[in-house]
């Protein structure tokens, strides 16, 4: 294998309507049939939700690995590299495996151009690649399986899981999922299968009622935060401490590896899911695995501190609910301190309300854009911040590398520099930071 051959394969993959969304499972069903149904050979925990999917997946993976299980992980989008979307025991898919699987699936994708269902999107092919990898290459005991968008018609919904998790329901992707919480919740609840237990995180009564209705229809046992289990946040210095009590056990004073009040809910839903699997499917997980797994869980781009003096924080808050959680965490960990913000968002996000939430906590803001085709223009972002707070120092810079460079050279040692607004942007900044650090070490 050469680097060029993999680069060409990934370029072909990225060319498959990379940023289009074509809901429906017809194309996945076609590919699974042609590939010999790899999805039927695997055990899954399927995760949907507006926010918190990646962090919940991180907690699950960490605990399961501490219990000695071989764990597959499928997430979207990536923060570090494309390979990170498909992992086995925390290690991204190897380049040679990825290339071999792309070459195996490419003829099927090409023939689908003439099929009634049409050619698949990039995300559908990546989903198929993950299933093929887990079923024919890495053979995990269990796969932590994150939806891409929604649930009912998401390509990941081709699987029949051991358990389903719906972390929360908020306003995002409304042009596809619907304009109100009822419609969005109905789409998320589409991952619920007949007789498969469902674990829900903290959410509104309106959204929960929809999920409860679907669970009843499909005779699926339901475990709800605030009802079948409780999560109480106990902060201790710079650590998050969770008291968990559920149907099958109580774990007090659990330290979390991820910070913020919202991570308490993500951790609790993961623990409840594993309790259900342990009690009904004999999945081996002991209390010591839960405690250690929660404490050692890591996930890039979730209030991730890259440096100190000044503190450089990356957070992939990319919608209104995510920014609400971010502002709460900022107030918890940096009470009374104004932050310097580098911000970029996609044009289809409610960046106006995001700016309204962030502006009161900022002393200066650099707004910019990435190469993503849906990236909002810096001047539009700047206007949102100006409207939210006219006295704020705002700098609109087209090139994100220049905005990042200026921010780094402007902040002082005692400052907090926050990067937020889009996971794609977080990925660019994180990779730039790591490359510069690596070059400095050489």
TrEMBL record:
<protein>
    <recommendedName>
        <fullName>Dihydrofolate synthase/folylpolyglutamate synthase</fullName>
        <ecNumber>6.3.2.12</ecNumber>
        <ecNumber>6.3.2.17</ecNumber>
    </recommendedName>
</protein>
<dbReference type="GO" id="GO:0005737">
    <property type="term" value="C:cytoplasm"/>
</dbReference>
<dbReference type="GO" id="GO:0004326">
    <property type="term" value="F:tetrahydrofolylpolyglutamate synthase activity"/>
</dbReference>
<keyword id="KW-0547">Nucleotide-binding</keyword>
<dbReference type="InterPro" id="IPR036565">
    <property type="entry name" value="Mur-like_cat_sf"/>
</dbReference>
<keyword id="KW-0460">Magnesium</keyword>
<feature type="domain" description="Mur ligase C-terminal">
    <location>
        <begin position="301"/>
        <end position="422"/>
    </location>
</feature>
<dbReference type="Pfam" id="PF02875">
    <property type="entry name" value="Mur_ligase_C"/>
</dbReference>
<comment type="pathway">
    <text>Cofactor biosynthesis; tetrahydrofolylpolyglutamate biosynthesis.</text>
</comment>
<keyword id="KW-0067">ATP-binding</keyword>
<dbReference type="GO" id="GO:0046656">
    <property type="term" value="P:folic acid biosynthetic process"/>
</dbReference>
<keyword id="KW-0289">Folate biosynthesis</keyword>
<dbReference type="InterPro" id="IPR004101">
    <property type="entry name" value="Mur_ligase_C"/>
</dbReference>
<comment type="pathway">
    <text>Cofactor biosynthesis; tetrahydrofolate biosynthesis; 7,8-dihydrofolate from 2-amino-4-hydroxy-6-hydroxymethyl-7,8-dihydropteridine diphosphate and 4-aminobenzoate: step 2/2.</text>
</comment>
<dbReference type="GO" id="GO:0005524">
    <property type="term" value="F:ATP binding"/>
</dbReference>
<dbReference type="GO" id="GO:0008841">
    <property type="term" value="F:dihydrofolate synthase activity"/>
</dbReference>
<comment type="subunit">
    <text>Monomer.</text>
</comment>
<comment type="similarity">
    <text>Belongs to the folylpolyglutamate synthase family.</text>
</comment>
<dbReference type="Pfam" id="PF08245">
    <property type="entry name" value="Mur_ligase_M"/>
</dbReference>
<dbReference type="GO" id="GO:0046872">
    <property type="term" value="F:metal ion binding"/>
</dbReference>
<dbReference type="InterPro" id="IPR013221">
    <property type="entry name" value="Mur_ligase_cen"/>
</dbReference>
<dbReference type="InterPro" id="IPR036615">
    <property type="entry name" value="Mur_ligase_C_dom_sf"/>
</dbReference>
<keyword id="KW-0479">Metal-binding</keyword>
<feature type="domain" description="Mur ligase central">
    <location>
        <begin position="47"/>
        <end position="273"/>
    </location>
</feature>
<dbReference type="InterPro" id="IPR001645">
    <property type="entry name" value="Folylpolyglutamate_synth"/>
</dbReference>
<keyword id="KW-0436">Ligase</keyword>
<dbReference type="InterPro" id="IPR018109">
    <property type="entry name" value="Folylpolyglutamate_synth_CS"/>
</dbReference>
